[in-house]
Structure formats: C-alpha cells, structure tokens
Design a protein that fits this description.
Layout (H helix, E strand, L loop, with lengths): L1 E4 L2 E6 L2 E7 L5 E8 L52 E2 L8 E9 L16 E8 L3 E9 L4 E9 L5 E3 L1 E10 L3 E8 L2 E9 L5 E4 L13 E4 L10 E6 L5 E7 L4 E8 L6 E3 L4 E3 L3 E6 L2 H16 L13 E3 L1 H4 L5 H14 L3 E4 L27 H11 L3 E6 L3 E2 L4 H5 L18 E2 L5 H16 L5 E4 L12 H16 L6 E4 L9 H4 L4 E3 L6 H11 L8 E6 L12 H9 L2 E5 L7 H16 L1 H6 L1 E4 L3 E5 L3 E7 L11 E2 L9 E6 L2 E4 L20 H7 L3 E4 L3 E5 H6 L1 E2 L21 E8 L3
Parallel strand pairs: 22-23, 22-31, 23-24, 24-27, 27-28, 28-29, 29-30, 30-31
Antiparallel strand pairs: 1-2, 2-3, 3-4, 5-11, 6-7, 7-8, 8-9, 9-20, 9-21, 10-19, 11-18, 12-13, 12-15, 14-17, 15-16, 16-21, 17-18, 25-26, 32-33, 33-34, 34-41, 35-40, 36-39, 36-41, 37-38
Helix pairs in contact: 6-7, 9-10, 10-11
C-alpha cells in the first residue's frame, strides 16, 4: 500500500514501512525505513539541525539546516553540497534535480528496455525530478514482502548527455550497522563476509560481465546485535545479471548511505536529446525478526514475484545428468543404458549434457554449431528423446549458446561475430564470447536453439556460460540486454520448459536469470560439505526451490573428500534433487540407497522445495505447517563427544508431534580392521571377504522416535549419543566424519 498524508509518502508492506517526503528544497528525504509504522508518524523522524554543521555548503545561506550533506536522503545529486557518494554522475558535471511532481499508481510501471522486472500485486510511487537539461523519474514499487526501486533518466536538452554512473537505489538509514556480502570464485561460491560499516566505504562489485561467482549482487545490512531470530536486518538484491555495484558508508551524522546498481567501472552511455536510460530494479526489504525474518521475505518475494508464473510452486522433477558419468565419451547405447538405470532408481528426467553437437569431443571444438553429432547419436536428438520418453522419463538438453570455439563452422563463417576490442581477443576455456549486442548473432542463437527444442519433446534446458568477459567495456550492459532478448524470445513461447541457468556453476546466480527460469545450478562443487556453505549462504537471499543440488560420486572431484552417500543425499534434499555420477559402477547396496533416497524425496518433495526454510545451529529445516524436516550436519568427529540437542522452530507449542529418524544404514566396510574384533574368525580388513561383505551388508544407525509437544521440540529434545569409541550400538549415531541425520516431525492428527 502507498499513501500520502500530510506531505509524507507511506510505503507499507507486510511488517515494514518506508516513509518519504519532499522537503522544501525539492529533495527526497528518507524519514524511516524499517518497522511497520503509521504514515502519520513521519514527523517524529524529521532531522532538526539546530545551528547546523561546520564546513557546510548551504542551499540557502539563511538556513543552517539546508546542507544536503547532513540530510537523510533517498536520492542525491553531485556537486551541490552533498559530498557523500552520488548515485548519478554525468562525467564531471554537477546535477541539481528537484522534485516537480509525483503520483501513486495501482500496479507496476512497465520497463521499456527489456530488463526483466518483478511481477505481481503491487502499487507504485512515481516521483519526477527535473533540472535544466534532464528529467529523472524514480519508481518505488511496493510488494507484499519488498520494495523494488529503479530510476529512469531522460535527456530533455539539446545536447548529448554522457552518463558515467547511474544507480538503481540509494538510501540513508541512521544507526550502527554491519554489511554482509557473499563472495568467492569458481567451486568456492557464496563465502559470507561481514564487516562493520564505518566512514570508510565498503564496496561489493562485479566487473566480469556477469553477476559473477566473485560477488553475488545480494547483500545484507544488519545491526551488530542481530541474530538468526532477532534483531533488525535489511536485505538487498538486484534484478540484473551483469556487472553490478553495491556500497555502504557511514557519515559523521550517523547516516549509512547504501547504494546499488550497475557497476560504474567502464560504464558509459551517451544519451541524445529525447533518449532515456533505465536502471535495473533494486530490491530492498526489512525484518526486525533477525536474519531468518529477512530471508523469509526474500524467499517469498522470489517465489511470488520473480519466478516465471508457470513454475511458481510447481514441483521440480528429479533428474539424472550424464556429465560426470560420460563427459564427452558417449553414444546412444551408453546413454540409454544410463537412462534405464536412472529410471529404475526413480529419476524422472534424463539430461544429456555437453558433447551432442558438431565435432564436440572435447572443450576445444564445436561450440557455436548445432548440427547433431550423428557418430554419437545416429538417430539424432529426436530419436534419443523418443526412446527415453518411451521409458517413462522426460528428456532435457544442455546448451552453451553464448560462446564459440575457434574450431567451429560458425567461427570459420563469422569470425566477426565474436566479442572483441582493439586488442587480439583472449580465450577462456578454449572459447570466445559471441557479441550479443549484434542483432544477427541473437537471431542465429534464437533460431538454432529453438529449432533443436522444437525437434523433440524437450522439457528441460541447462543454459551454460563458462567464461568471464575481457572485452565488454562500455558494451557490458548492452550484452546483458541482448541475453535477455534471447531468453525472452526462446522461453516465453515455451513456458513449460524448465530452464536451469548455469554459468560454471553459480557464476550467474541472480534474480535477473530467475525471471526466465525457476532454478540455477549453485556450483560445480558437489561436495556436500562445501555445499553446506554454498547452499546455506544462498538461503539468506534465495529460496531452496531455486537451487540445483546433485548427488555425485565420492571422493569428490573438487576436494577429494570422501563423504557418506546419506550426507550427499541429505544436503541435496534441500533443493531441486538430481544425480550426477556413473550409475554403471555403483555397488548394489548404493543403488538401493539411492532408490530409497528418491522415494523419500518424492514423498516430501513439496516440503523440501517450497516449505519455509530455517537455518539451525548445526543444520537446516523446512516446514509446510504440519510436516517439518530437519537435518543435522557434522564435519569432523571428535573423541568422547557430549550429548546434542535438536531445537525445531515454528512449531505450535500446544500441539503434539511425532518425530522419527529417516532411516540410514552403515556400510560394514567403514569399520575397517575393527570388524575382526567382533567377527568369529580373523578377517583381513583389506581382504576379499570383507570387500564382498561391504557391498552387501549394512547395519542400522541411530533410529530414534519421540512423541512430545511443540514446546518440548522448541526447547530442544535430546538426540541419541554419538559414537564414543566403545563399540557399535544401533541406538547411537555411528556415522564418521561428514555424517548427518534427517528427522521427520509431523503434527499428530494431521
């Protein structure tokens, strides 16, 4: 809801309010952004400057309070007395925008540039600011769980304007805060870093041409005493997939200026008279219920206002991807055998990854070509898809349309189509990027990808992009607009296709990509212990239904860590489950375990994918109101461990709940030479008998059932003891390093 009362604009969502006013100098003041308040409370937040501040540059020499540098603003100019960071720069020219008029609009204001935007029930405040040669329009769109901001600049003069910096959002909030960013790199995404916001500016920025695995566009501003379930926490994100920028800096007066938008690095846009430029939408929300409160709002906003309508709350299929099982070495018979095995285990979707086109026997050739490799697939994609469909499985396909190999028919025909600057182009992963700013390049991709998709019953697409850009420069934004044009033209006419974005894993995990497809491949790192960090930190800003999460073989290719199959499953359950390993080499005991995992996941799929997600002390939980699924994860075990408790959140304290352990089995081989101490004969721990036993014999582990009130579970029920070096007991938890347990808590009578 948006309202105007006594000169104060009240923007109200569920549990938060933003109060704004235009002051007597035509500047946009931020009175409050935080807890839900009445619009009439706005006057209580007015800054009263008294005799003012020393060294001030005044807008009115007779008014000591007319220093823009000391005002809490929601937008500012440059060169007119506000010496804090400006959201708008014309390249050395001062800007002096003053508000001329505003209006409240029921619904959104649609963008003209092709940048995706949030959808759904909303109201919009449009504020128009003018100066001599330009017009600035600020849009505040209020959804249930967030406010979405953007800015539009129009050239109303007679000369060109060179735009050097243009942010989507700026606001000044008062208080002491910390900024948490999510940073990293390939197979090491989403490392959380927290620093106090001080007079020195904190900047999180991507200049790789993508939203990047180095710095996710989402970030958090929190008070120092904020905790998981208490305290004031602000969440921010950007509906954009390219270079981005976010900053926070505290002023002498105690205002923290927070800014977000397109990275100004190498950014330059020349606007001719009459032209406009639109920024992407910036998302901001608030909760006084800690990090979990802000995450809940962000999750709901993404689910209800970002994900394509066809896929909102629609269960995702359990897939098998052939990449780690085959890589480039496959033929139709091999794929069909893998599909049969995957079907037996319960998988619903078979995905053919890289290597199906051109001369694609390695990553050195073929990208850019769409001719089917008939040596591998004599019956083509359509023939393979029909055979897999006949097994009762859906069929999906991998693409990498934005890149081209030098050894390809496309490059030989159109070397001018690659992205280049005045220097010799540089390769990454043996490939160049195609110049998506060229209409003919976009048409080529749309026509060829569409032709493949229409040639068979393809229900899933993995859209990959495996390199950073070194030659985008000022074309970076236009490249992203070109990408959005391609995605829109391919997938809007085919809404039933599940698009999973992938860019070397989580290199483009952002709200812009989620506007076109409902999920993103989190990371090429499938080690579940690493995924605890990656998926856990993604959960601050994104719902688990957006996570592609696969069980892979151990030891893991990224870490050489050997993890239990049950832990690999338990971590992947908290996302969109898939399997990516060579099924031909699995012992029967592991195939049985995978089949049990899949059956369990199917039974609770909607809770895992769309339940309310909460971070626990040593794990995660999801709940749909009647069923809660909670996992406890460990890294290294220690000798003689103490007792552990499990605290479940959000239960009705007066209701009765039944808890049981999701059954897990121990392989006898994990005990090594200890087996000879309990066996009736002397066994060689590395011998044939024990190796055979390990493939067929399992022991039950940690089975526990509890009936108790919601209050008891909230207080923390006692778990079975961990292994203490005194022998095996089925009433203890015996899993070794990197073990985990999963608990099902269901309300009695429901």
């Amino acid at each position: 809801m948006i309202e105007l009362k006594n000169g104060v604009f009240g923007l109200h969502g569920e549990g938060f309010s933003c109060l704004l006013r235009i002051n007597k100098y035509g500047l946009l003041e931020l009175l409050h952004f935080g807890e839900a308040l009445s619009t009439e409370d706005g006057e209580a937040f007015l800054c009263r400057p008294g005799i003012g501040w020393g060294s001030s540059v005044l807008m009115d020499e007779n008014d000591a309070g007319s220093c823009a540098d000391a005002m809490p603003l929601a937008w500012s100019g440059s060169g007119r007395g506000d010496f804090r960071e400006s959201p708008l720069e014309f390249g050395g020219i001062s800007t002096d925008f003053r508000c001329s008029h505003s209006k409240i609009i029921n619904g959104p204001v649609l963008m003209k540039s092709g940048i995706p935007q949030a959808k759904g029930d909303c109201d919009t405040l449009e504020m128009v600011f003018t100066e001599a040669n330009a017009e600035l329009r600020l849009y505040f769109t209020v959804f249930r769980d967030a406010i979405v901001r953007r800015a539009v600049l129009g050239n109303t003069g007679k000369e060109n304007i060179v735009l050097k910096k243009f942010m989507s959002s700026m606001l000044d909030i008062h208080g002491d805060f910390e900024m948490s960013t999510f940073d990293g790199g390939w197979i090491a995404e989403m490392r959380k870093h927290t620093a106090p916001v001080s007079e020195n500016r904190i900047v999180s920025e991507s200049t790789t041409g993508a939203s990047s695995n180095r710095h996710n566009p989402g970030f958090i501003i929190s008070e120092p005493d904020a905790a998981e379930d208490s305290g004031r926490v602000y969440g921010f994100n950007l509906i954009y997939s390219g270079n981005h920028y976010a900053s926070a800096q505290k002023s002498l007066q105690g205002f923290v200026r927070i800014m977000q938008g397109i990275s100004p690095s190498e950014f330059s846009k020349e606007l001719a008279p009459g032209e406009i430029f639109e920024t992407p939408e910036a998302v901001m929300t608030f909760s006084d219920k800690g990090f979990s409160g802000t995450s809940e709002k962000m999750h709901r906003f993404v689910t209800e206002n970002i994900i394509p309508e066809h896929w909102r709350n629609r269960p995702r299929p359990i897939l098998y991807n052939d990449w780690e099982g085959c890589m480039f070495d496959f033929n139709e018979a091999k794929l069909l055998n893998l599909a049969k095995e995957a079907k037996k285990l319960g998988c619903e979707l078979f995905v053919l990854d890289d290597g199906w086109f051109g001369k694609r026997d390695s990553d050195k050739a073929g990208l850019g070509d769409y001719s089917i490799n008939k040596r591998k697939l004599p019956n083509g994609i359509s023939g393979l898809a029909k055979k897999i469909n006949a097994m009762g499985m859906e069929f999906g396909l991998w693409f990498e349309p934005e890149s081209v190999n030098e050894d390809s028919d496309l490059y030989r025909a159109h070397p001018d189509w690659i992205l280049r600057d005045e220097f010799p182009p540089l390769k990454g992963r043996n490939q160049f990027l195609l110049d998506l700013t060229k209409p003919e390049v976009r048409d080529y991709i749309v026509e060829n990808v569409s032709a493949v998709l229409d040639s068979a019953k393809i229900t899933y697409v993995k859209w990959d992009m495996n390199r950073h850009s070194t030659a985008l420069g000022a074309k970076a934004h236009d490249y992203i607009l070109g990408l959005y044009d391609i995605l829109r033209r391919i997938f809007e006419p085919r809404p039933e296709i599940l698009l999973e974005s992938c860019s070397s894993g989580g290199n483009r995990f952002d709200l812009g990509m989620l506007c076109f497809g409902p999920q993103i491949w989190c990371s090429d790192d499938t080690d579940p212990i690493e995924r605890l960090t990656i998926q856990g930190n993604l959960s601050y800003l994104y719902p688990q239904s957006a996570f592609g999460a696969h069980v892979s073989a151990a030891p893991h290719a990224q870490t050489l860590r050997n993890t239990p199959l049950c832990t690999r499953g338990n971590v992947s359950f908290f996302g969109c489950l898939g399997y990516e390993l060579d099924l031909r080499h699995l012992p029967g005991i592991e195939k049985k375990q995978i089949a049990e995992q899949i059956a369990f996941y199917k039974n609770y799929r909607e809770v895992f994918q769309f339940g309310k997600f909460r971070r626990l002390k040593n794990g995660w939980q999801v709940s749909d109101g009647k069923t809660t699924l909670a996992a406890v994860f460990r890294k290294l075990v220690h000798a003689a461990p103490g007792y552990e408790t499990l605290r479940i959140k959000d239960l009705d304290k007066t209701a009765i709940y039944n808890m049981k352990t999701y059954e897990q089995k121990l392989r006898i081989g994990q005990f090594g030479s200890l087996v000879k101490h309990v066996a009736p004969v002397d066994l060689d721990p590395n011998g044939f008998v024990l190796r055979i036993a390990d493939r067929h014999i399992t022991l039950p582990d940690g089975k526990q059932e509890i009936r108790a009130s919601g209050a008891a579970f909230s207080a923390g029920i006692m778990l079975l003891p961990l292994f203490r070096g005194t022998g095996y007991d089925q009433n203890q938890r015996t899993l070794t390093d990197f073990g985990s347990e999963l608990y099902i808590i269901e309300e009695e009578g429901k």
